[in-house]
Amino acid sequence: MSLATPTTLPSAEAAEGRRHFGQFSLRRRVLLSQMPLTLSVALIVVAVAVFHPHIMTDSPYFLGGVGGVALLTVLAGVAPWDRFPPVVYWVIPLLDFVAIAPIWASARHGLDGMVMLSAFPVFWLAWSGIYPVIGVVLAFVGSAAVTWWPYLPGTPTFAEGLLEYDLHRPVVVPFIMLALAVAASVLTRSMDRQRRDLGAALESFETQNRLLQAVVETSDVGILVVDGDGHDVLMNQAQRRTHFIGLPPGREDGAEHELLLFEADGVTPIPAEERPVTQALQGKDYRGRIIAIGTDGAQQHLSVSASSMHDQEGTFDGTVVVFQNVTDLMDAIQTRERFVAEVSHEFRTPLTSIIGYLDVALEEDLDPLVRKFLTTSQRNAERLLGLVTSLLDTAANSSKVTVQEVNLARLVRNSAESVAVQATKAGLSLQADLPERMDAKADPVKMGQVVDNLLSNAIKYTPAGGSITVSLRQLEGVGGVDGSGEWAELVVRDTGFGMTEAEREKLFTNFYRTEHVRKAAIPGTGLGLAITQGFVRAHGGEILVASEKDVGSTFTVRIPLCGPDA
């Protein structure tokens, strides 16, 4: 039964007492508080009956005290304490002092330690938490009354012929009881404060837990938490829907190894030991792994990430796996690539034909004005063809390279010689620092385009009077996954416009052009460097850029001499 009754206590201390007994009904708590005294008195009755039976016959007050304790115990169990303010149940410990007095006075000569019976109501009054000061005072007064009762003239158990010092014998007992009452009261209040703090912490934790649960369940991202033994701890609604998509036909549930999981191509099955949750349970962390789940029209693409958890000793304690549905994004990328490839192909065929016929026409003896018009048309057509070719290269799979033995030094030298005239016309100084020979396993067409793109950009974005330097050298133990092997390093440095840090971060994005270049109306598509990066990565290499605004830029390309597989 709850303590939330219409009756209220007149103070905060009384309210604290109500909270102190709030875990159970008051009737049960009062009965439990009375039972230690009752059991102790029952033990005393047995001891008296065995060792000093005359006490029961010679001292009727002993049985009266025992009967009083029994009556109070019954009252504690049957009275409707929940209907009264908690302070009312103090009547039980206060009447316990009255019942204990004749028991102690009658049996004290036969059994030692009888005065300790008063400790039970003392603890009860101090422990209740209701009006602590009053409770301690009543505990002291009650224990003093019990202790001195046999020594007071006129009491039924008063012994004649007591010496004067006999009255001082029990003087310490009430003060010991007072100390016990104070200690119990202090301990109780400390426990109450701890209970309040713990209650507030639990309430805060429950609030945060409800908030987290709401966020997790309303998230469109699938979330799976697995403990160190591989048991699911949490799976939100989004992940349950995804899990259902991967179940074989006719199945209502299944483990990960039974799900229809495929690589990003949607066709190649993923082996059981390479599946996302299995690898996560091995303590592996990963980000953005693309997989496909389900088959036919219901197949979805997911970006999976996993982060392991560890306890204070660093032992693996589970993992969190996040599944983000990227089906729409994958469809959009594939649609874009198909569109660019188809449009680029459809444009390139007629443009090639136009440029061919313009070449033939310009070989004829033409009027100067007509030749000027045709030359302008040819230049713009070639520019448009270059744009279409860049678009086609972007849409193509740049990760495929045709590797063969290539003299990189000759390839770079040929590219530098090809742009030398263009650099001279732009008023630029072009210098090359190249070895006589450097053999490598590479795709000569794509690596040639890498060098051409870097040199063309350097010339295009360097004002007259500037300089461009291209160098090639062999490095040992640079780059790569393990930082070993022989590498070729190509460096193209210019004194051009340069870039800010924010511009460098977007430099390899398709169609991106810096603000200065756009304002200067310098022609270009913003695809060259994106294509260049794809070709370099296809060779197992990397491309780096260092640039400072109005100072210049340095592009560094490193590829393994032994080919992409190395």
* Largest sheet strand order: 2-1-6-5-4-3
Write down the secondary-structure element order: HHHHHHHHEEHEHEEEHHEHEEHEEHHHEE
Strand content: 15-25%
How many β strands by DSSP? 13
- How many distinct helices? 17
| Fraction of residues in helix | 40-55%
Mean of the pLDDT scores? 79
Protein name: histidine kinase
EC number: 2.7.13.3
Domain PAC: 284-338
Keywords: Kinase, Membrane, Phosphoprotein, Transferase, Transmembrane, Transmembrane helix, Two-component regulatory system
Folded structure, characterized:
The chain crosses the membrane at residues 30-50, 62-81, 87-107, 119-151, 171-188. It comes from Citricoccus nitrophenolicus. Its main location: membrane. Its EC number is 2.7.13.3. This is histidine kinase. By secondary structure, this protein is α+β, with helices and mostly antiparallel strands. 50% of the residues lie in helices and 16% in strands. The protein is built from 17 helices and 13 strands. The strands form 3 sheets. A 6-stranded antiparallel beta sheet has the order 2-1-6-5-4-3. Strands 8-10-11-13-12 form a 5-stranded mixed beta sheet, with helices on one face. The protein has a two-stranded antiparallel sheet with strand order 7-9. A hairpin with a 5-residue loop joins β5 and β6 (316-325). It is rod-shaped. The protein starts with 11 loop residues before the first helix and ends in a 6-residue tail after the last strand.
